[in-house]
Amino acid sequence: MNRICLLLATLLLTNNGFSQQLSQAPITPAFSPVTWERLLNATDEPENWLMYSNTLDAQRHAHLNQVNTSNVAQLEMKWAYQIPEIDRAETTPLVVDGIMFITEAPSNVVAVDAVTGRQYWRYDHELPEDLRICCGRNNRGVAILGETLYMSTLDAHLVAIDARTGNLRWDVEVASYESGYSKTAAPLIVKDKVVTGIAGGEFGIRGFIDAYDAETGELAWRTYTIAGPGDPNVSTWSGDSWQTGGGASWITGSYDAELNQIYWGTGNPGPDWNGDVRLGDNLYSDSALALNGDTGELEWYFQFTPHDVHDWDAIQVPVLADIQYQGEERKVMMWANRNAFYYTIDRVTGEFLVGKPYALQTWATELDSDGRPIRVPGMEPTYEGIVVSPSIGGATNWFSPAYSPQTGMFYVNAFDGEQEFFKRDEDYEEGERFTGGGGQYIQPMDTYNSAIRAINPATADIEWEFPIQPRSTAGILTTEGGLLFSGSVDGYFYALDASNGQELWNISLGARVHAAPMSYAVNGQQFVTIAAGNVVYTFGLRD
Amino acid sequence: MNQPISWRKPIYWAAVIVFLVSLAWVTGVSAQDEGNLYNTAVDVRLGERYFLRQCSRCHGQDARGSDETGAPDLTGTLSRASSDAGVYRIIREGISGTAMLPVPQDTPDPTVWQLVAFINSLRTDPANIDLPGSVTAGRTVYLGKGECASCHMVRGAGGRLGPDLTLIGEELTPDELYTALTDPSADVDPRWWSVSVVLQDGAEVEGLRMNEDTFGLRIMDSQSNLWSFQKNNLRSYQRDESSTMPNYAETLSASEIDDLVAYLFSLRREN
Description:
The complex is a heterodimer.
Chain A: H1 2-13, H2 19-22, H3 36-40, E1 61-62, E2 76-82, E3 94-96, E4 99-104, E5 108-113, E6 119-124, E7 143-145, E8 148-152, E9 157-162, E10 168-173, E11 188-190, E12 193-196, E13 208-213, E14 219-224, E15 254-256, E16 261-265, E17 287-292, E18 298-303, E19 319-325, E20 328-336, E21 341-346, E22 352-357, E23 364-367, E24 373-375, E25 386-388, E26 402-404, E27 409-416, E28 419-423, E29 437-440, E30 449-456, E31 461-468, E32 477-479, E33 483-487, E34 492-497, E35 503-508, E36 518-522, E37 525-532, E38 535-540
Parallel strand pairs in A: 1-32
Antiparallel strand pairs in A: 2-38, 3-4, 4-5, 5-6, 7-8, 8-9, 9-10, 11-12, 12-13, 13-14, 15-16, 16-17, 17-18, 19-20, 20-21, 21-22, 23-24, 25-28, 26-27, 27-30, 28-29, 30-31, 32-33, 33-34, 34-35, 36-37, 37-38
Chain B: H1 10-30, H2 41-54, H3 56-59, H4 84-93, H5 109-121, H6 135-143, E1 153-154, E2 157-158, H7 168-171, H8 174-182, E3 194-199, E4 204-212, E5 216-220, E6 226-230, E7 234-240, H9 254-265
Antiparallel strand pairs in B: 1-2, 3-4, 3-7, 4-5, 5-6
Helix pairs in contact in B: 2-5, 4-5, 6-9, 8-9
């Protein structure tokens, strides 16, 4: 095989179109097994995008600089891949040694050549007809370990797929879809385990985070995100309300190998908008959890919104970095929450360091010294309705933020919205929606402001903002080329200067961007990929 | 200004009719709980007639699907539905976001159930088949003398140089399995054709054809490496449409082949 690689490299080296790029990087066989060591050191191979947030610290920062502030205006489309089923693409593809893995709605995955977008194989997951899903048929990506891909499915299964053929290796039921559980997020590999969350917070589930043996699919551990019997924090739930307490975990977490801690966000308590039936703080809903990387045991938690009654899930990707804070280096976690507050937290202990609003909010006057919100009285949903900021969708939501080690700034798509919140009385019925209310916009969307905001994690101050009209539900990518890429609901994909927010390039893709951009390189050429509508587009500089 | 609705008014009767129709609809759908009541030989024939008229344009006259239209093969495992009720629902409601449209709203329930019966008839019910071979002995041949697992996967275990056989019992009849074993090149899916590529300097790469389009070619070599070529970068490339599988009529006895057929036919969904 090495002989063939060499011959192929020789062939391409003599081809004018690729000679410059090839001289910069050797051809790798497509592809080599992705070991845990490769995942641990993902920054050492910037040409690949090996996990949902690129690296275990979830910074979503590409260490590539061929496309940079001086030439980004010359980006052109290289290829497009049409997802056969029309739905809302939320995928972040992976790229391993020139092969791209794209997940599709409802629960499918396709492998394509990352240079041309042309298909190698596809896997279609068989689904039942009576799924219980709250918010669309979505899938956000796969994880890879060795030669196997791991994917969540809408019927609350976890499947292992051979990355070379698309053959199914194993398929385990994580929870019963008939009880309202589903799965949409990319799993996270930690050592030899597949760590994965669960969705279903609108169906009165009891959330958890699971780890499965990557080889066999056997459950290694389960940590419930809602305190139950045996846990003193069950007292934060009135009566038996913990049993239907929600606390879903439907976005991918992050991992610190030195601390051996897994970080994961949890969703709203159930029912969402009627807190009368679940008095108390409702731990560990709307929290950041730090779990032991081997056992899943809870090492610390930080609850952003105690006794949430507005559906402000802490379903954001926990972004990790070591930063200078008040003159000393601290291992921190950066978190722009759906509740409109930004937080910097010491990830060793869970200690709150600093936090401020980063978007319009009317429900709390400020955070106290422990990071707990000081509430404005009378902002709970009523039977008649009450207007509160942020909206149910939040000041941000699941879409990924980014941190650039180059600028030292944290970036988030922020929305200054409001909604009228209602509550209603509702009995729990297994497998049925259990929300206890809802909300509605009272003004046209164009009335509200939205922006990419760059936050200094040491102060929680906003350094700059780039306004977006009407708003964005896209993730963010930063690169070593000094760039920030993101998209908007009205179908634009654009690049900003990450240091100051200056607009450098944009293109209309004609359909809502609801996914996060990613970047990779093959044969020395850098590409940037984004899904818009049901199409995956890839851009690069002219050859 | 709310006013009571008089039972004499047309709107009242319209509402009653809508209610009764909806009740009838619910009754029609819920009949699925008792299984398909329209599954006699006559129903299957009527279902086939409807299929040929309305469905074959996309799914093909033989219901084996079409790469051109993207319509799936209905003779094997159905990836969208695992029950009569599921097939009924897809026919009635279509599949959102795809070219699979619902049947016209006024299509009578019996017609839809007859179509379900016809689609079911395309697959062979193992309960009605009495095969001469032994499943257990066939598994031994599969793993041993036949060396099938070196190229094929079953439930994630095995090689990558042939089709995944996990559900092969739902996809092929015993006769088709027999033919595949004793005349493997009779009907080879293009996914399993071989391709030989000659690079500009004369070096060759060989592998199984994973995918091909106007400008590109993607193959898997014998080491399971994936390669993507642009055709205009190649000196030449050549397809071999025969199977890479050995002809087992030459290496296995008749009874061993019977056993292997029995084992392969037993590979289907776990209930």
